[in-house]
Amino acid sequence: MVESNKESQVFELKDDRKLGYAERGNLNGKPIFHFHGDPGSRLEIRFLGEKLKEYGIRIISVDRPGYGLSDFQPERTLLDWPDDVVKLADHLGLDKFAVMGISGGGPYAAACAYKIPERLTSCGIIAGLGPINMPKKGMMRSNRIGLFIARRFPFLVKPLIKAEMKAFGDPEKVQKSIENMAKKLPEPDRKILQDPQWLNIIIEDFKEAFRSGPDGLVLESKIYAKPWGFELKEISSDLQVYIWHGELDVNVPISMGRKMCELIPNCKGKFFPHEGHLSVGFNHIDEILETLKS
Hints:
With 294 residues, this protein is of the alpha/beta class. It has twelve helices and eight strands. The chain has helices at 51-55, 81-91, 106-115, 141-152, 157-167, 171-183, 187-193, 196-209, 215-224, 254-263, 279-283, 285-293, and strands spanning 3-12, 18-26, 30-35, 57-62, 97-102, 120-126, 241-246, 267-272. It has an eight-stranded mixed sheet, with helices on both faces. The protein is globular, with a radius of gyration of 18 Å.
């Protein structure tokens, strides 16, 4: 088995943009492209730890434009993302691969399922955000306000994200911010944030997201607040899509996960009564990797 643990690779696209990505696992194993949350970066795959060795999987985790090592792409849309994925896959010599998106990465996995189904072996969406027109009952107030501002008052998004970035430059502010956030989350998610090992990974992942400034995150917020450019029912029925979602999730409510699964033609959903937003991926990663590997 040829193993890889390269966290800071860069691929140059034909439009001169750079795309940052990380690779972990078995280079000869089943390839899975991982799409991080928001904020987030390619470093999110540190959560997987040693799991990749166990399963013989090759994970390619990609920074979206304006995050981490990836150059900003002005005026990009959700449906621009599959093009970048295909170009990177071609560069790596990968004809077929699976994709998985967590939280804010969920829409990007769905976009790939819609636009490039012929390249995919399967698509996994873990606690993934749904389209803006879906009911938001059960979503925490701060997230609902964020989507409302991005949609109705987009000029306010940049100052808010710049303030968030500034806070991450102060360790005490970061700690306080996370403690305050944890109070709003269900117990399964609080346990993760109270574990120093996982907390450090989250903080480093967020810092990397902010590496190039606010522009990538600002545009992404606006993308989430717009129609996706396709309907979930238009995803090919030939492609198997999986959804994993916690019923205690207050970041992305369970209603979104269930509705997405209902609309996607060939979707298998698994909904966990005692899991939240973070915990569903943490506690069920074995099942997720085993499913997408097959």
